[in-house]
Each structure stands twice: as C-alpha cells, then as structure tokens.
Amino acid sequence: MTKQSHAFQAEVAQLLHLVTHSLYSNKEIFLRELISNASDACDKLRFEALADTSLYGEQPELRVRIAFDKAARTLTVTDTGIGMSQDEAVAHLGTIAKSGTREFMARLSGDQKADAQLIGQFGVGFYSGFIVADRITVESRRAGLPPEQGVRWTSDGSGAFEVEAITRAERGTSVTLHLREDALEYADGWRIKELINKYSDHIALPIQMEGEQWEEGKEEGQPGQMVKTGEWETVNQATALWTRPKKDISDEQYTQFYEQIAHDWQPPLAWTHNRVEGATEYTQLLYLPSHAPFDLWDREKKAGVKLYVRRVFIMDEAEQLLPRYLRFVKGVIDSADLPLNVSRELLQESRDVRAIREGNTRRVLGLLEDLAKAPAAATPAPTADDAAVTDVQDKNEAQAGDKYATFWREFGAVLKEGLGEDAGNRERIARLLRYASTTSDRASVTLDDYKARMKEGQKAIYYITADSLAAAKGSPQLELFKKKGIEVLLMTDRVDEWSLSFLREFDGTPLQSVAKGAVDLGDLQDAAEKKAAEEAAEAVKPLIEHLKEALKDSVEDVRVTTRLVDSPACLVVKDAGMSLQLERLMRQAGQ
Length: 591
Ligand code: ADP
Ligand code: MG
Fold this sequence. Notes:
By secondary structure, the chain is α+β, with helices and mostly antiparallel strands. Helices cover 34% and strands 20% of the residues.
C-alpha cells in the first residue's frame, strides 16, 4: 500500500503551533508524556487480555524501552502495549477527541511554566514530542493483528501527517523523535535516566535502557567512549507505590506519584494512604489537589480514582468509588476482593464497592477535618471500619489552617453539594462549611463559630444569599440585623440556596434566610419596639391597602415591617417560596 497524506484536524494544527512555540523552555516534559502513553497502552492490553489472553501472542512481557542514537540524533520509546491499527493511528494521532482542547488553548497564559502544567491536564501529551523533534515517526501494530497490518505514521508537525502499511514483527508501538538541533541533549543516557527518575519512577512497569560502558581508546592517544553493552536494564523502581510500606515512601515520592496519576504538576495539598482490612480488603491512596481543574463544573466530569484489582489496572475514572461531591479527589484503590473481569455495571451492584466507597468517603472527610483542625467535639468517634485501618498516616500537620483555606477556596462549592447528596454524612459536612458573614469578609466562619457568637435570645442561624459579597452586604434586608448586632452569614455560591434546603438545622438550631417571610427576632425585639411597630402599622393602614390594590398583580402581600432601618421598602419571599436569589438564577437559566 502506498503512503496516504492526511491533514491534521484544525485544532491539532493550532495546538501544535502553540505547543512548539510556547513550551520550548520546558522541553523535558515530552518524555514524561511518551512514557505515560506507553504505560497507558500496556494497561489497556492487560485489561483487554483479561477477556482474551491470546492478545499477548508470543510476547507476555509488558515493558517500555528507551533507546537513543547520538549519531542519528534520535530518541525512541518502544512499548509492548496494545498498539494501534492504521485507522486508530489516524484517529488518535491526527485529531483531538477531547472537548477540553479549546479550553486548553483559551487558557494558555504565555507563562510557560503554567502552560506546561496545562498540557498533561488536557491530554495533548503526544504532540509535546514536537517541542524537541522536527519529525516524529510512529510504528505500531495492534495486539491481535497479523504482522503485515502494522502502520507507520510520520509527520514534521506542521500541517499534515502520512501513514502507510508496514510489516512489524512485534506488537506495540515505537515512537521515534528526530531531535531538533537545540534538543540534542536528550540523546544521552544520563540525561534520559535523570528524567525517568524525575517523572516516571513509579510507573508500575519496567522502563529499560540499554546498558553502556566506558571503553578506552584502542590505541595510544585515541579517546575513549561509551559503548552499548546490548543488555537491557530496568532503570525505574517499577513497583506500584501504593503497595509499599508507608515508612519507605518519602513525601517527594508521594508527590511524584500524584503528578503521574493526576496529570497535575502542582503538588497536592494532602493525602491519605491506608491498607484497610476486614470484611472488604483494599488499599486506598487518596489525594486532595491544591487547585481546581478546568472542568470541575462539567456535568460529564469523570471521577479521579483509578481502580486496580490485586495490582492489575482495571479502569480509570471509577465513579462508584466516591460520591460525586468528592469528585475532586484523585488516587488509587487496589481491591483484594473484586474479580479481575469486573465491569462498570458490576461495580454498581457490588457490596464490596459500596463498602469501599463508604470507607473512602469517611477517609476523605477525616482528612478534611484534620486540615480544618475541627474542634474536638466535631471529631467523630472511630467506626468499626476505621479501627481496622492499620498504620494510618495523614501528612497534614504543617499549616493545616492555610491548607484548609486553600481547599475551601478551590473546592468548597463542590463539597456543599454533599449536603444534598449524602444525608448520612450531613453532620460532618456541615461542620466543614465556611462562610463569609457580616463580621468576616473571608469565607472562614464555621457554623460552630456562628453559634458561639449568637446573641442571647437568638433562635436561628441567619443567612442571606446573593450574587456577590457586595450585593449581600448592601441588602436592605440586613438593616435590622446590623442595628441589633446580629451576625448574618453571607452566601454567594450558586449551590448555596439548593444545598441549604437540605440543612434545615445545625446542632439543634434552625437556619433561616433573612429574605424569607416575616423575620421574627423573638426575644431580641424589645417591648417598646414592638409597640411602636404596632402603632405605626395602624397609622399606615390606608396606605397599605392602597399599595396592595395598586400592586396586586405583582405581589402577594404588602405589610409593615420592623426589619428596615434606613430603606423605605424591600422585597421578601413568603416562607415556603423560592428565594429571590434562586428565582434570579432560574430566570437566568431561562426557566
Ligand atoms: P492521552 O494520552 O491523554 O489520550 P495523548 O496525546 O498523549 O493523549 O495520546 C493520544 C492518543 O494516542 C492516546 O489516547 C492513544 O489512543 C494514542 N496513543 C499514543 N501513544 C500510544 C502508544 N504508545 N500506544 C498506543 N496508543 C497510543
Ligand atoms: Mg498521554
């Protein structure tokens, strides 16, 4: 078959331009991306082979080999993974299926460090090869296809790529980079080992390089040189990090592992690593990222936890392992009990999975409580499951308060969804909430703080919802509360209204919106004030009747209020009604 030329999808061409022009000062990430693809390809083969072992063919070994040729100026990454058919090569290396790409490009800031971090997150990894190469050749053969159905893909990364059929003896893929003049440093054994060590040590797959040894010059005066020995040596740790004892794992290693699995090059905020024993046995290694991903609010957003069964990778994005309101958590679960051929459908019904999910939820909430340094009363008694956990370690002592503030800024609005989603943990979640209030502009007030500051005779926790802090603070509905010195929580997240409909009371005290119904301050209103109000009401009765008539198509009722101090009038919602804020949101959404 002859060569076929294909144009890159427009987005890819644009992306390539950006990648090569804006990321050149962060060249080295290309190797991490290629190794990560090789590792994914091996995971995919291992998974498909669970149903069909013949896919291994003659080659049972899964591994990655990195070779370089100084004279030819090439670097080649070869794996024995799933490989690609010709159609797959065209589809996967010529288009970008992910909708996040546009978002990626919109987010490029011109700051190379920040931009480089985006690359992995948005899955544009393969194309990063063009940062260091002026031509890339990929040769591949999909597992299960005969040798004649191999494919060669090649491109100089400008507008197009070519594919042709080849015969390829081995299954899997090799990616050869023809290095640019200014990237020749990567055709060097030490440099490559350094990068593997830095980025890919914990890939649970051997990464091998050909051994080299020094050979003296044969004759007097002739310089010596490094020559290849022909022996392949494994240069990474190649063990799954989570299976190692905690005491043998450094913080740096935990952080590196996070970077690999989360594709996030900013260190995590905290993590928790436990082996849980008992009825359901599993290992959990869960991380809290330090910043929100771009697609946190995407309804299709996938969960961040990978599922392994006895160290065999089963699936990414195992959404059954954590509730949706903890979707920002990244990590690995390795189950000792699930069958290897477990499917997503099966996961939904599995008792073990339910136990793991509950255990994970408890553990993450516990981690958050540690970060928040919740008061002693807020710490729940250990449960049976917790007691079975051996050797717990949570790395959060330092600046826990700051870390919680960071967590809250990035993910607080997501955690609030838990009030509605997870009735069983509502108490615990409620204690983790932080709000701004009339005494604090920062979202730092806990419901416990609020209760401790309640005025004598105050019967409810008061709050107001609005689009912004300024709008909340300027609301006429707060006037009376200000005058009385009663604190009001100021809520500005879209989810506040909805989530609070599930939190009717906290620790025995009802929550009450100041914008709903007649605010009854009860004992906080003195007798003289009440009397004055009644007299006033009597005096303006004719006016009220007049207003009711004039506004009868727009409002349900008009009444005299004591809630205002400076403003002449305000709108309120009847008790059971939708709040003004919710109504505004619904109108925005076109309802
Ligand atoms: P991502 O890894 O996030 O999917 P990449 O740009 O790194 O994005 O890779 C694009 C796609 O190309 C992969 O999803 C995969 O289908 C294919 N691919 C890349 N490298 C390999 C490989 N070594 N073996 C098999 N498929 C690969
Ligand atoms: Mg990739």
